[in-house]
Amino acid sequence: MGTVFRRDEKTAVVETTKGKVQGYIQNDIFVFKGIPYAKARRFHAPEPVPGWTDVFDASSFGFVCPLLSLPRPNGELYVPHRYWPMDEDCLNLNLWTPGCDDARRPVMVWLHGGGYESGSAIEHIAYEGENMSRYGDVVTVTVNHRLNIIGYFDLSDFGDEYANSGNAGGDDIIAALKWVRDNVERFGGDPDNVTVFGQSGGGGKVTMLLQSPDADGLYAKGICMSGVWEQEPFAEDEGGRALAESLMKELSVRTVKELETVPYARLAAAYETVRPAFMRENRYVGNQPFRNDFYAGDPLLYGFRRETSQIPILAGSVFGEFSSFVPGNEDRKSAGEEKQLHLVEAVFGKEHAAELIPLFQEAYPEHPLCDLVRLDHFFRPAIQKYIRLRSALNDCTWSYLFNHDMPIDGGSTPWHCADIPYVFHNTQFVPSTQEDCTGELESLIFDSVISFARTGRPDHPGLPAWPASTPEAEQTMIFDTKPILRCNHDLNLMPLFEKYMKPIFEANKEQITEKAQH
Questions:
Q1: Which letter, b or e, does each residue of 316-354 get, where b requires 16 or more Cβ atoms within 10 Å of its Cβ?
Q2: How many Cβ atoms from other residues are within 10 Å of residue 286's Cβ?
Q3: In what order do the strands lie in the sheet with 139-143?
Q4: Percent helix, strand, coil in the chain (nearest 5)?
């Protein structure tokens, strides 16, 4: 390794379309933080930022989007976090590159998780882009954008200026991709080879881009990590008028213009007051993309847009997801068969357990029987449907499952977010991913990500043969210490498992959510 750190008047200075920015060099990687890519008034579409004549100091992270409620630190062994100053002036991005040259490297644009309500581009320490850029020879970009009630609140009934307020956060991401298109070549990147990737809500944002005409041509590939879930249409086909009127009444204001200037903390508190009643009636509450002329809607409900049908997509999930936050890992491998059987029967009942057990053992022969109660039912069935629908349109849809036990409580099934450090080549930052001293699994996963970014195919010599999926054959790469490809391995298990597990999970949802807040 050459330059450990350098910053002087001539170091890491790049001319962008708006003016010069200066970052620094750390461990031979050029780092730029907090670059503004747009600006926006509350509820309005993003606008260009004015140019600057001085050199912009890009050595510090910018503001992150305000959250409806302050996060309570917990679970740092599972997912180490950063907490950062919040402000609505949060349309900024961070960039890491091996060189500000003419190498035209693949560009990786990360969309953070937290649903559409929370999170930030720097929330997880594993979002650091230095290692991805170094070991992958790529340009890595992470994006902050508007969230929750200021990012996803349809007010189109109140005038054309709010035509797409229901997708303001998505418009921010599109504005960031336009910044990448116009500037990334000066940072050593290839604007014609941009991969958008994200986890949980970030994975959902990847699909949102597929369904948004204004994003067409701004990216070449997408990776959707634990980002597909089944959604029910709202009970009424309505926009945000009723929600807005309730908010105005709660805040004692009369117009949406006044909502634009209410201090965020008051707006958030009022929203938290009125939202529960709308949720109980399954009515529009914002906080997620809104189907309109700018966004074609959830593809599981409305189908994929044909215009983006040939974009290669790699989609998958984690074995345990939220279920791995449930207590009880401690004796999952030491318990005898009889005790494990009793556990499964206690959860599902004897009749349902008898149906599920042979299907589970066929699908996951490497797992102890008691892991049946820890299997994810939230993302995996939806991903199966997603893969079937999308692969019917192309030959570039790929499926994976992260299935590696984690060294907590004597060996835990992997949880929601457990795969992120491997994707970024950042296991060194997360205590629970440092058990693999050789880095073998990290390399296998990371090499798949980089191969996909370069070629649109995630296979590489370190893996078994990995064909694209078809509607009839989901070809899933099971990532563990020894990866294995399985075809339709859980096709028969998941519909029945989802049917039986969903009501059990819902009954314990509050406890699980408390544990799983990231």
A1: bbbbbbbbbbbeebeebeebeeeebbebbeebbeeebbe
A2: 25
A3: 5-6, 24-26, 29-36, 92-97, 139-143, 105-111, 189-199, 221-225, 313-318, 397-402, 475-479, 484-487
A4: 35, 20, 45
Q: ∠420-422-427 over CA atoms, to 5°?
A: 100
208-217, pLDDT tens digit by residue?
999 999 999 9
The count of other CB atoms within 10 Å of the CB of residue 305 is 18
Across the chain, mean pLDDT equals 94
Beta carbons of 413 and 432 less than 8 angstroms apart = no
The span from the CA of 367 to the CA of 50, in Å, is: 56
Q: In what order do the strands lie in the sheet with 19-22?
A: 13-16, 19-22, 56-57
- C-beta of residue 79 within 8 angstroms of C-beta of residue 125: no
Q: Are 72 and 118 in contact, with CB atoms under 8 Å apart?
A: no
Secondary structure element (H or E) that encloses residue 150, with its range: helix 148-151
What DSSP string runs through 305-322?
A: -GGGTTS-EEEEEESSBG
Spatial distance between the Cα atoms of 86 and 121, rounded to a whole number of angstroms: 12
Tell me: pLDDT of 341 over 60.
yes
pLDDT at 327: 62
CA atoms of 144 and 123, how far apart (whole Å): 10
Task: Report the distance separating Cα 294 and Cα 315, nearest Å.
Answer: 24
Other CB atoms within a 10 A radius of the CB of residue 61 amount to 18
Total Cβ atoms within 10 A of residue 428: 13
What is the spatial distance between Cα 175 and Cα 144, in angstroms, rounded to a whole number? 11
Backbone angles phi, psi at 455, to 5 degrees: -120, -15
From the centroid of its chain, how far is CA 3? 33
- In tens, the pLDDT along 244-272 reads 999 999 999 999 999 999 999 999 999 99
* Sequence-ordered list of residues with C-beta below 8 angstroms from that of 260, at least 6 positions apart, any chain: 41, 42, 43
The first and second tokens of residue 410, run together, are 């004597």
Measuring CA to CA, how many Å separate 36 from each of 24, 46, 170? 17, 11, 16
pLDDT tier for residue 407 given thresholds of 50, 70 and 90: confident
Q: For residue range 38-56, what is the model confidence (pLDDT) as tens digits? A: 999 999 999 999 999 999 9
Which among 456, 409, 48, 234 is positioned nearest to 466, based on CA atoms? 456
246 three-class SS: helix
Residue 517's pLDDT is 44
Sequence letter at residue 354: A
**Can you tell me whether residue 161 is helix, strand or coil?**
helix
